[in-house]
User: Fold this.
Amino acid sequence: MADAVERKGLSIFHDVFRRADKNDDGALTLQEFKDFFTDGVLSVEELEKLFHEIDVDKSNNLSTTELCNYFANHWGPFGEIFAALEDLNPTITKALNHTFQAYKQDSFFNQFATRFMMKEVANQLRALGTPIEVASEKMDEETLKSRPHMQQATVADASTATDPLSSRRARRLARFQSYQPDQEGGGVTPLALTTEIQRLSSLIDRLENKVLISGVEEEHAEEDDSNVVVVLRELAVADSSVNDFKSALRTYCETSRAQDGCNHILVRSFSGTTKFAIYEVWDGQDSWQGHFTSKSSRMFQKTIIDHLEAPQAVKVMPMPASWWQDPQ
Assistant:
């Protein structure tokens, strides 16, 4: 039989592996496996037993192939869903890129149609995700009821909640936020796609509102006028993790400033809170996307997951390059 890694839909599990592989060394240790796959139901002993079952070559590390083979042999009817998601990812990306480039030049009614379709796609994806979430939570509850005396595995700082189901929900949100776009057309969850579509839909609404305001200064520009990209990351950090977060943030900023295409990075903190805002200015969309999928950016995302009280919010806005003046 051919290796499971050849099956359509398994690129999603390559993304799962990358998110679980905290140090990006291409292998999952037992600790990395437990940190990522703890679900509030399995005990520590059961997680360790599962790890060694997946580790067919007995190397005490899991490879991408071993993880993919395991899930491919157990995915049943979900295989068709993962295959469909694999096709959906590049389709969504293509539509978003086209919209980003064409919207401002479209006619007024074409813009209306684009806004409507964007929101409707988001609604449809959200509708697909809701019954899956409900069913997943129901299965968790039923399984926990059948194991009243079992001590479930927990992960440090996964959540301040003591209830296993609440802790699991908190980690699920963190995992969704840790999703990184796969430039080769890899896996993506409906929730991640919904978030991206809602973000672009909101951006389009703001652009449209700006167009409808009369009496403002108008600037004529050449059609090929270039843009810089302004990125805002909003993060709420757990009280107990502020120092660790600041250390990771310092490393991220130093690394990012040295990258080609980075014009400026500014960090703001807010008095009396543990909230931070990171403002980044990049040469253009390509520079930003290249940075976002870089090793240093992925490492930063993985490092801060357990330090955040909620998933970070990321907002991206293009701006004419002629408006940007380096404050340095």
About this structure: Confidence is low (pLDDT under 50) at residues 1-5, 156-169, 171-188, 208-216. The longest helix spans residues 108-145.
